[in-house]
Amino acid sequence: ESPTAAQIAALRAGEISCGFFHPDAPTPEFETRELLRERNGVLLPFDHPLASRRQLRLRDLEEVPLVLFPRSLNPGFYDQVLTRCSSAGFTPRIEEEVWPRANGIALVRAGIGATFVCPSEVRQLPPEVVLLPLVGDAPESRLIFGWNKTREPNPALRAFIEVVAEDTSVPSS
Known about the structure:
By secondary structure, the protein is an alpha/beta fold.
């Protein structure tokens, strides 16, 4: 669960051969494949007053404290949250900034606030939380597979690239 910024730095330094990350800026030195693009939902404690709804609008979170990861780990997504909340007419109240992701989910579970989660992560969530879809403008996440194209891929990476190229049928939402 290495954050995007750390993976990109490691790819640039040649410390890793490839990575799975959520880029927020162009990375021209990398060859990339988008594996997944999906709209985030809102993760709430199961006993939160909003948890009984079928879906939420971003505006519904105006009074809800948010648990996010630090901006330095993925500035693009963090800024996307701020921008979309602003467009919805409010400034989000960021209660905590934590990493790794499991810590953020634990804080939601404990009732500290809400966070944004992709529907593809639902199988990893504890039963004490509920993931609700966001209608309208919602933060979006992309999962990218990438490698440094300025370096010759080793045989294992070449084989892995072929597997990824064959199976890019991951559904997008």
